[in-house]
């Protein structure tokens, strides 16, 4: 069987939380994850942004750095970066063959798609002799396969409701799962803002005890700058210099994709209520909004910030609803999005299911109305746009997937 086809079939296994499968696989691969120290990052929002900034800082300190993130936007190789650059397809296939061979040793293991990519990252980081790995948790923390890395620092960015079907219905239950990345005797750093629920903080404090470190958050900062400040605090803990660095993190870093369409364009990835709230607070000028998201357990709660009267009366000139076409998760039906967000509102709206067609129409309308263009929603929507731009402008794919120098 073709090795990539084998990987694709892993998706049929869905999400399978637990450590035993990957622990066995790592032993069969001679425990590559123990060859380097890791910073392990969990959280509802911001963990990818923090990870890429930490990778950039580590590289600026002349370290060979491995970065593991998910999901990918265009190519699966994006999940595994060395010094900010995705590994090559040939290297990916080489490590993939090693993982498949290890899975077939009796008794046969059946790692999930995510577990396979995590195992590949560990092999890639070992072979490239990384000095430091930056590891983004996939889902939760306590039972996520990334929990197996040899971390000397753990970080939790934010805690809010997301993936409740796996992590629990309450914030306290979710906090316990995310705090499960803690290893006894290893410091765990959390962000503390005015929005942090006291009962959630107590749950974490009770679980972590004297290993807990607290980073106070300035609530007036943009999300990206919050993670910039946190990355500098972590750099100080590591004894690193923390120069000002430019990162190219899709849908999150400032100005990402702003020149791709006319007029001025803001592209922001948001996948839950907290994310939408944060991004909406940064919009102060009238705009045409294009939005598309993937399936969520509670669509009404996720989209609540977008239903507020203020945005419909003062910010949204028009909303175009669309559907991401890439990614493993199914898109939310654009008609349902329209009904949920525009219920009892007079904001002009339309449904254009093809995301590129939706953006092209929105761009023309924004120019005519002399307002901004805002594209918001799933990271997969950002991936659809990036792929379109690479083809449209004949850009170098791998250079566009580089996240820092």
Any key phrases for this structure?
alpha/beta; UDP-N-acetylmuramoyl-L-alanine:D-glutamate ligase; Protein-Tyrosine Phosphatase, Chain A; 2 domains; eight-stranded mixed β-sheet; five-stranded parallel β-sheet; 16 helices; 15% strand
If you had to describe this structure to a student in words, what would you say it looks like?
There is one protein chain. This protein has 405 residues and is of the alpha/beta class. It folds into 2 domains: 3-238, Mur-like, catalytic domain (UDP-N-acetylmuramoyl-L-alanine:D-glutamate ligase, 3-Layer(aba) Sandwich), CATH 3.40.1190.10; 265-400, Mur ligase, C-terminal domain (Protein-Tyrosine Phosphatase, Chain A), CATH 3.90.190.20. The chain is built from 16 helices and 13 strands. Strand 7, helix 8 (198-208) and strand 8 (212-216) form a beta-alpha-beta unit. Helix 1 (3-10) crosses helix 4.
């Amino acid at each position: 069987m073709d090795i990539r086809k084998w990987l694709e079939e892993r998706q049929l296994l869905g999400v399978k939380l637990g450590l035993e499968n990957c622990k066995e696989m790592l032993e069969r691969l001679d425990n590559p994850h123990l060859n380097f120290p890791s910073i392990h990052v969990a959280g509802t929002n911001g963990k990818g942004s923090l990870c890429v900034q930490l990778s950039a800082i580590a590289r600026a300190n002349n370290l060979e750095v491995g970065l593991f993130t998910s999901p990918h936007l265009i190519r699966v190789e994006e999940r595994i970066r060395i010094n900010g650059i995705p590994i090559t397809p040939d290297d990916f296939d080489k490590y993939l063959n090693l993982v498949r061979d290890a899975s077939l040793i009796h008794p046969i293991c059946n790692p999930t798609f995510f577990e396979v990519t995590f195992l590949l990252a560990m092999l890639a980081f070992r072979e490239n002799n990384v000095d430091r790995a930056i590891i983004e948790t996939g889902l939760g923390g306590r039972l996520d396969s990334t929990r197996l890395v040899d971390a000397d620092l753990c970080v939790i960015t934010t805690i809010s409701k997301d993936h409740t079907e796996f992590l629990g219905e309450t914030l306290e239950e979710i906090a316990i799962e995310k705090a499960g990345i803690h290893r006894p005797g290893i410091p765990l750093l959390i962000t503390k803002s005015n929005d942090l629920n006291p009962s959630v903080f107590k749950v974490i404090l009770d679980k972590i005890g004297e290993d807990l470190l607290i980073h106070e958050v300035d609530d007036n900062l943009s999300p990206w700058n919050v993670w910039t400040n946190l990355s500098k605090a972590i750099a100080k803990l590591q004894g690193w210099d923390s120069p000002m660095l430019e990162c190219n993190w899709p849908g999150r870093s400032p100005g990402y994709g702003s020149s791709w369409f006319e007029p001025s364009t803001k592209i922001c990835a948001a996948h839950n209520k907290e994310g939408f709230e944060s991004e909406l607070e940064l919009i102060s000028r009238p705009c045409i909004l294009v939005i598309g998201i993937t399936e969520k357990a509670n669509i009404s709660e996720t989209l609540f910030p977008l239903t507020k009267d203020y945005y419909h009366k003062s910010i949204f000139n028009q909303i175009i609803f669309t559907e991401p076409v890439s990614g493993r998760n199914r898109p939310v039906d654009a008609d349902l999005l329209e009904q949920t967000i525009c219920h009892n509102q007079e904001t002009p709206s339309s449904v254009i299911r093809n995301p590129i067609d939706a953006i092209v129409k929105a761009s023309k309308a924004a120019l005519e109305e002399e307002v901004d263009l805002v594209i918001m929603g799933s990271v997969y929507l950002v991936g659809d746009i990036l792929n379109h731009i690479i083809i449209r402008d004949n850009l170098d794919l791998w250079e566009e997937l580089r996240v820092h120098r």
